[in-house]
Amino acid sequence: MNFVFDLDGTICFKGKPVTAKLLEALERLEAKGHTVFFASARPIRDMLPVLDRRFHRHTLIGGNGSLVARRGELEHAVPFSPEQREALQRLLKEHEATFLIDGEWDYTYTGAADHPILANVDPSRLAKRIGLEAHKAIVKVLILTSNDMEGLAKKAAELGVVVHRHGKENVLDVSPPNVDKWGALAGLAVKKGGYVAFGNDANDITLFMNAKYSVMIGHHDELSQYAAEALPLGEDIEDRIAERLDKLSEHWAAIEEAGTHVQEY
Fold first, then answer.
1. pLDDT at 168
2. DSSP H or E stretch at residue 216
3. What residues pair up with 216 in beta bridges, in sequence order?
4. I need a surface site. Which of 11, 163, 188, 191 has the fewest CB within 10 A?
């Protein structure tokens, strides 16, 4: 079975790397013959610092599906069209927005020097902070502040791009049209119902909708409608995730070994 993991708030917390406890649980999955994917809102550049090196050559889906890396190399990128890019730049200026914009590797940041998001941006100094016009392509826009966040969100959605609101941080996450984590998985020949998903936020909805089984970490109102189960956040969350992974691993390994198919777990 394929197992697909979001990162922040799902298997790593407060910007810190995935701990040894969960890394070992992931290795046990692979020892049972399962395949592990990672799918994050982070660009590939910022996924690497929170994953141990032994997972850097795994399939990494970044930018909510706009970037795919395999075997340590960026393999696929979906940017905004020139027209969408121009329109978004106008909206950002019109609404006096501050933002983090990602190209395929480098980034542009105009937010406050003490904004919490900045601690997670290129902590390993793998990229360059460049001017907006220096990007050959743009794959993701994270809007941090605005003089009218609601109006900006509405106008951005009218461009046909994908807009997610992260309520806890009060930021807008904007991706190119038809880009999401499930679409990136499908492009890698992963079939609908061919994976188990772990996630925690609105950008995991399509991932959950097309999964065989889904586990929500914490609670998100929209995502909860598509979750098969939820693990509440708490001091022992990593223990419970590891325990759940071991049980799901045994279950799906037994099913695949028997060559049977079940509708529910």
1. 67
2. strand 213-217
3. 199, 230
4. 191
- Nearest residue to 5 (alpha-carbon basis) of 198, 205, 216, 220: 198
**What strands, in cross-sheet order, belong to the sheet with 140-145?**
107-109, 98-102, 140-145, 171-175, 162-166
pLDDT of 265 over the 60 cut? no
Q: For the chain, what percent of residues have pLDDT higher than 90?
A: 89
Distance CA(117)–CA(219), nearest Å, equals: 21
DSSP string, 146-214: -S-HHHHHHHHHTTT-EEEEETTTTEEEEE-TT--HHHHHHHTTPPTTSEEEEE-SGGGHHHHHT-SEE
CB 250 within 8 A of CB 34: no
Domains and CATH numbers, the chain: 2-77+180-258 (3.40.50.1000), 82-175 (3.30.1240.10)
pLDDT for 23 beyond 80: yes
Are 141 and 31 spatial neighbours (Cβ–Cβ below 8 Å)? no
Exposed (0-12), middle (13-18) or buried (19+): which is 27, by Cβ within 10 Å?
A: middle
Which of 31-35, 115-119, 163-167 tops mean pLDDT? 31-35
The pLDDT value given to residue 260:
52
Is residue 67 within 8 Å of 44, Cβ to Cβ?
Answer: yes
pLDDT on residue 262: 45
